[in-house]
C-alpha cells in the first residue's frame, strides 16, 4: 500500500505520515520501499489486535494520557510523592473510574497480555478439587474464564469495583458459571469459596495496603481454603531478571508511588504478616508465578 493511499484512508497528510513511518521503519517497525509503499514486518504485525501475542492493547495502554503524564513528573516519587496523583490530582483507580474509555482500555490490556498468562495460570495449577474460586480484583474475568473452560466443575465469582463489574457483559459470564459481584477488597469478600485468586493485584499497592487486602482474604476464607497470589517474582540480581519487569516496576512507581514488583521473599513476608503460610511457588509458562498459601 502506498503511503499516500494510507494517508487518504486515515485522513492525515502524506508528508508527516511518511516521516513517522520512516522513523518506525528504522527500528524494523513497518517496511518502506523506494516507491513509497509501506508493508508490515514481523514487528509491526504485533500492533494488530488479531495477531498472535498482540501488543495492540499494551501499546495503547502504555501510551495513553493517563499513564504517560505521570512519567513527566516521575522524580516526585524520589521524595515520597505519587506521580500520578501529582499529574492528575487523583489516584490511579479513581482516574480510571472517572475516565471510562481509559478504564476499559486498562481492562482490555489486562485481558490480552502477550505472554498468554491467563492460559498459563489456568494450566499450571490443579483446580480439580476446587468448587468455587473468587477472582479478587479480576477485571473483566479473563483468567477466571480460562480456568472454568479447563475445569467444568468449577464455578467462579468475579469480584471488582462497581464500574468494572458494570462493564462485564452477560456473554462474559460463561453461561452462568461466573457471578459478577461489586465491592471493595479492602472491606469484605464473598465467603462461599474454597479458592481465592489475586492475579497481579498486590503489585499495585504498597505493603500496608497489600496486607489489608490479604487480611480481607484471610477473613473470608473457610476451613480448607487456599489463596493463590499470582505475580511476577523479581530476582535479587537484575541481570537475571526480565528487562520488562523492571520497567513495569517503574510504571508502578509512576502510577502508585510506593507500590512495586517484589521478590519471593517479600511476598512470603507479606503473606506471613497477614496470617498465611506460603506452601509452594508454581512457575508458569508466562512471566508470572503462582504462590499458593494457606491460613495459619
Question: Please, could you describe this protein's structure?
Answer:
This protein has 2 domains: about 5-45, no CATH class; about 110-295, Vaccinia Virus protein VP39 (Rossmann fold, 3-Layer(aba) Sandwich), CATH 3.40.50. The model has no long low-confidence stretch (mean pLDDT about 95). The radius of gyration is 21 Å and the shape is globular. It has helices spanning about 5-10, 15-25, 40-45, 55-60, 65-70, 85-90, 90-100, 100-110, 115-125, 140-150, 160-165, 205-220, 245-255, 265-275; strands at about 30, 40, 130-135, 155-160, 180, 195-200, 225-230, 275-285, 290-295. The longest helix is centred in the C-terminal third of the chain and has 14 residues, at about 205-220. The strands form 2 sheets. A 7-stranded mixed sheet has the order 5-4-3-6-7-9-8, sandwiched between helices. It has a two-stranded antiparallel sheet with strand order 1-2. It has about 300 residues and is an alpha/beta fold. The chain has 14 helices and 9 strands.
Summarize this entry quickly.
This is O-methyltransferase. The protein has 296 residues and is an alpha/beta fold. The protein is built from 14 helices and nine strands.
Task: Describe the protein's topology.
Blueprint: H1 3-10, H2 14-25, E1 31-32, E2 38-39, H3 42-45, H4 56-62, H5 65-71, H6 83-88, H7 92-98, H8 100-111, H9 117-124, E3 132-136, H10 142-150, E4 155-160, H11 162-166, E5 178-182, E6 195-199, H12 207-220, E7 226-231, H13 243-256, H14 264-273, E8 276-283, E9 289-295
Parallel strand pairs: 3-4, 3-6, 4-5, 6-7
Antiparallel strand pairs: 1-2, 7-9, 8-9
Amino acid at each position: 500500500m502506498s503511503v499516500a493511499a494510507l494517508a487518504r484512508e486515515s485522513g492525515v497528510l502524506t508528508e508527516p505520515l511518511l516521516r513517522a513511518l520512516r522513523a518506525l521503519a528504522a527500528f524494523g517497525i513497518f517496511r518502506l520501499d523506494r516507491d513509497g509503499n509501506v508493508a508490515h514486518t514481523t514487528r509491526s504485525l504485533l500492533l494488530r489486535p488479531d495477531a498472535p501475542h498482540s501488543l495492540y492493547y499494551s501499546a495503547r495502554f502504555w501510551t495513553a494520557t493517563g499513564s504517560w503524564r505521570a512519567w513527566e513528573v516521575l522524580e516526585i516519587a524520589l521524595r515520597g510523592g505519587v506521580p500520578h496523583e501529582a499529574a492528575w490530582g487523583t489516584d490511579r483507580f479513581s482516574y480510571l473510574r472517572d475516565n471510562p474509555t481509559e478504564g476499559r482500555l486498562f481492562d482490555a490490556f489486562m485481558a490480552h497480555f502477550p505472554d498468554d498468562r491467563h492460559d498459563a495460570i489456568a494450566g499450571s495449577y490443579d483446580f480439580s478439587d476446587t468448587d468455587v474460586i473468587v477472582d479478587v480484583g479480576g477485571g473483566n474475568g479473563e483468567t477466571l474464564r480460562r480456568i472454568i473452560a479447563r475445569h467444568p466443575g468449577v464455578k467462579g465469582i468475579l469480584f471488582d469495583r462497581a464500574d468494572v463489574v458494570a462493564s462485564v457483559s452477560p456473554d462474559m459470564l460463561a453461561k452462568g458459571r461466573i457471578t459478577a459481584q461489586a465491592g471493595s477488597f479492602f472491606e469484605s469478600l464473598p465467603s462461599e469459596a474454597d479458592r481465592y485468586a489475586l492475579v497481579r493485584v498486590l503489585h499495585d499497592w504498597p505493603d500496608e495496603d497489600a496486607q489489608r487486602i490479604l487480611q480481607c482474604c484471610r477473613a473470608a476464607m473457610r476451613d480448607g481454603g487456599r489463596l493463590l497470589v499470582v505475580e511476577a517474582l523479581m530476582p535479587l540480581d537484575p541481570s537475571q531478571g526480565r528487562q520488562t519487569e523492571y520497567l513495569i516496576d517503574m510504571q508502578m512507581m509512576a502510577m502508585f508511588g510506593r507500590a512495586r514488583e517484589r521478590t519471593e521473599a517479600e511476598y512470603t513476608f507479606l503473606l506471613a504478616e497477614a496470617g498465611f503460610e506460603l506452601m509452594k511457588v508454581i512457575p508458569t509458562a508466562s512471566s508470572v508465578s503462582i504462590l499458593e498459601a494457606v491460613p495459619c
